[in-house]
Structures are given as C-alpha cells and as structure tokens.
Design brief:
Heat Shock Protein 90; binds nickel (II) ion; 2 domains; single chain; 15 helices; six-stranded mixed sheet; 509 residues; 19% strand; 33% helix; TIM Barrel; six-stranded parallel sheet; elongated; alpha/beta
C-alpha cells in the first residue's frame, strides 16, 4: 500500500520534472486517473419547488405538551403517508413523555395564525436554533420539505428538532421516499446498500478536493462512521443525476488528516460531496435505483387542492362544516373556497335542487366532500305518513347516489324536526348540529363571520346553508379564520373516523 502511495506521488512529481528537461516524451502516456470524479460543494442543493404537486398540508400545535409540527400527505400514496404520520406521531409521543402531558389536539384564537400548513422549500436546511427560535414556546418542532419529485417517485424530508434556540438538544432528519406507481416506500438510508463503497467515494472526493494526491485505497469506515454516513444519507439529494451527500459535522477520515486543504465541517462551514452516477451506482439498492432512475416531471396526483380525507382527528383538531338546502348557484363559489384551502365539508342536499344541478353534485363528490340527504321537498317529516317519509328520503338518496356514485348514509331532517317514528323509518343517523350560524335570519356579514369563526370547538358540527348569500360571501374569510385557530375541516364521516353512530348526532364527543 505504501509503495502505491509513493509511486503515485513520484508519478505526479515526475511529470513536471520530465516535461521540463527530458527531450523525448512518450505520446501514448497518460497521467494516472483518480478513480472517483466528484465535487465538493459549500452550498446545499437547491430546494425542490412543490408547485404543481397536490399535497394535503397539515399542522398542529399543543402548548401543554410543547410541540408543534408541520407535514404533508401525498394523496394516493398510503404507505408514504403512514410513514410520514408515524414519524410525526413518534416526535409528538416523545415530547409528550418528556413533558408528562398526554397529547390531545388543541385549537386557539385566530391570532395564533395557524393557517399556513405543510412543507416549506428550504426549511429543513435552516439551523436548528432558528427553527426552535421561530416556534411558540415549543420544545419539539417538526418541519418538512419536498426534496424529490420526478417521474413516479417522491421524497419528503422531515426534521425533528428538540430543545430551545439557546440550547439545541437533538436534531434528526428522516427523508421518506416513495414510488407512487408501486407503493414502495423507504427512507434515505434504504437507497444505499453498499455503505462502505459510498464511504470510499466520499473520502476520495474529499481527499482530492483537500489537495491530497494519494490514490491509495481508502480504509473501510468504523461502525461509528458507517452510522454517521447512514444519517447523512437521510439528508442526501439527487440533483441532475448526481447524489449530493452532506458531510456530517466533525466528519473526518485517516486519509484526510494532515492535508493542508482539509477543514472538518462544522455548523458554520457545512460541506457536501456530489457524486456522479458512475460512482454511486454500484452502492444503490434496488429501491435506490428506482429513485435515482426517475426522470422528468412528477407524475403523481396533480389535482391541486381537492379535499383529501387522510386527516387523523386524534392528531389534528377537527370540526365539520355542513351546508344545507343546496345545491344552488352559490355552491360552486363555496367549493372553490374549500378547494383552495384543502378543506372538506358535508352537503345535505335537497333532491329537487340536485335534479337541476347534476354537475354541481358530481363536483361536490369528486372534490372529496360528503353528500347527505335533506329530503326531496324540505317538508317537516314529523307531519308526514311513514310512506311519505320513506319516499322523500328514498327518491333523494337514489338521485344523489346515481349522480355522485357516493353512498348517502346520513340524513338531516328539515327544521331539525324529528321524532322516534321518523328516526325509525329513516333507518340511518340523523345529523343535527351543535353550532347554528342562523345564516338564514339576515345577520350582517361581520356578525355572521364573527360568530361562525369563534363558536366552534373541537368536534363541532356547524350548520350553514349554501343557498344563503351571506354564507357564500364570508366563506373564504370564515375558512381562513377557522384554519388560523388550528382547525382541520373534515367530512362528517371523517369526524367520526368512519363510524357515525346511529340515532341523533349533534357533535363528535
Ligand atoms: Ni333545510
């Protein structure tokens, strides 16, 4: 080994010496090649622009447990979403244990301004102290960033920091990759099977960049170095076919020590090594090859903003908006406002109105909202015969199901008028409400808005009407106000986690 090093150095020196004084050179001679051609970088890879990727953004904050988290689901990729959610739950669980307080979803006043959700480009590269400093007295902060979106493959990076701006206690990164075509999911370390091969390449590039001329074999990593490289792979990225690996703080190797150009990376001087495909290819796992091979625009879901019911109401604070008496000419505007805010609602439709607006019924369902039965003609059901009750509900359910393809398994009795007989004939849950906005009684927009933003609690079912102009006008501000308080707006079915109880339902306990 020592002889190879010496030979390499002599060759390097000899080339200079020979060309200066030797008259006859061998034209077929070529200088020795360094085995790895890679580059050292002193700036992080550019963030991925998540525009055009349909994500379901999430956010929580709990001031008793002292935790806040932002993350995003990718519609249609359950294995990825499960892995993302498990990471968030683990961070919350650890903080909950540390603080000795059980976690429950929490809502706030509008001044909490929790509307912005999901991932932010570049955020996982910020100093941990900045992330903790920007938090509201939280001891654990989770942020996310989309780091990969090509072909059918996608990568979301989650960073979990603990401590305070003055004293960071821990700082963990996990990047979750998915192939939405196959459902395969793995973290950053799962892309590389031959960790030792990658170690050699990384050290070779660093050695050369630091001025080292040696071509000697890089010694294999210690277990500790191997683990550090695995952690670094969570923070690695594919950029234009190259694999960009951050060198961990304090990174060193025997081959680098004593080199004049070598500076051990520290938080003020971070360093990345960018490796070409020829270098890292032999180290890839099968899954890593799928991610590395992916090219072109992201071919995942692109229906931006449609309501996506992946929400977990034991994790985020949920409530249900319900809209009665439509559809009407105002319904599309309300749907736009919901779509733009990744929010869902439940529409209790009248058969006679649905009949005239089949496209609106289809849109409600296609965008992820729930449809309920509000009868055909809006009668007081308690005044009707059993047969008339049954026909009011059946005709409406048949029409709504045929238009939307959605099973209609709940009803709301007009005027809330209900008795045991009506319940028995209907044979499905009767959905009433715990907050009545009285939007039909002619309130000013300001009063309607102030009441409907402030009245809901977690589990509230709120009554509104998509035939009321006031409701239509305030809808964007109402949704923003509820989101600012931390609420997630979900369908009734989601509010009860798919298990709506029988009988009369006013709110979710
Ligand atoms: Ni009604």
């Amino acid at each position: 080994m020592a002889r190879r090093v010496l030979a390499a150095v002599l060759v390097a020196v000899g080339v200079v010496g020979l060309s200066a004084c030797a008259p006859d050179t061998d034209p077929s001679w070529t200088p020795a090649q360094w085995p790895v051609v890679g580059r050292m970088l002193t700036a992080p890879p550019p963030p991925v622009d998540p525009a055009g990727i349909a994500l379901a953004p999430q956010r929580i904050r709990n001031d008793s447990v002292r935790v806040e988290a932002r993350w995003a689901y990718l519609p249609g990729s359950q294995p990825l979403n499960d892995a993302v959610e498990a990471t968030v739950r683990a961070a919350i669980g650890e903080q909950s244990t540390a603080s000795g307080v059980g976690y429950e979803p929490q809502v706030f006043g509008v001044e909490a301004a929790l509307r912005e959700r999901g991932c932010v480009a570049g955020v996982t590269a910020l100093p941990a102290a900045d992330l903790l400093g920007a938090a509201t007295d939280s001891h654990t902060v989770v942020v996310c960033e989309i780091v990969h979106a090509a072909g059918s493959t996608f990568g979301e990076r989650l960073r979990v920091v603990r401590g305070s701006a003055a004293a960071v206690e821990s700082d963990q990164i996990v990047t979750l990759y998915a192939d939405v075509a196959t459902g395969a999911v793995g973290d950053g370390a799962s892309l590389i099977g031959q960790n030792d091969l990658l170690w050699e390449d990384v050290v070779s590039v660093a050695r050369r960049a630091a001025g080292g001329l040696s071509l000697s074999q890089v010694s294999p990593p210690s277990d500790e170095q191997r683990a550090a490289l695995s952690r670094a792979l969570q923070d690695a990225s594919f950029v234009d076919g190259e694999l960009v690996v951050p060198l961990p703080v304090g990174f060193t190797a025997p081959e680098l020590e004593g080199l004049a150009g070598w500076q051990t990376p520290d938080p003020e001087h971070p360093v990345w090594v960018s490796l070409p495909r020829t270098s890292y290819d032999p180290a890839l796992t099968e899954f890593g090859r799928v991610i590395a091979d992916a090219q072109g625009a992201f071919a995942g879901p692109t229906t931006a903003g449609a309501a996506f019911d992946r929400t977990s109401c034991d994790l985020v604070p949920c409530m249900a908006l319900t809209m009665d008496d439509g559809p009407s000419g105002l319904t599309d505007g309300i749907l736009d406002a919901l779509r733009d805010r990744h929010s869902a609602a439940t529409f209790f439709m009248l058969g006679r109105n649905a009949q005239n607006r089949p496209d609106t019924v289809r849109r409600v369902s296609a965008e992820g909202h729930q449809i309920g039965n509000h009868t055909w003609n809006h009668p007081d059901l308690t005044t009707l015969s059993d047969e008339r009750i049954a026909s009011e509900l059946r005709s409406t359910a048949d029409l709504l199901r045929s238009l939307s393809g959605q099973a209609v398994s709940t009803f709301r009795p007009p005027y809330g008028a209900l008795n045991e007989r009506v319940l028995g004939v209907a044979g499905m849950p009767a959905i009433l409400w715990s907050v009545d906005t009285r939007d039909w009684a002619g309130p000013s927009d300001a009063d309607l808005l102030a009441y409907s933003v402030s009245a809901p609690r977690i589990g509230t079912i709120m009554l509104m009407h998509d035939i009321q102009e006031g409701t239509s006008r305030i809808m964007p501000q109402l949704l923003d106000g509820l989101l600012d308080r931390g609420f997630s707006l979900v369908t009734l079915s989601k509010l009860f986690d798919g298990q709506i109880p029988g009988g009369i339902v006013r709110y979710a306990p």
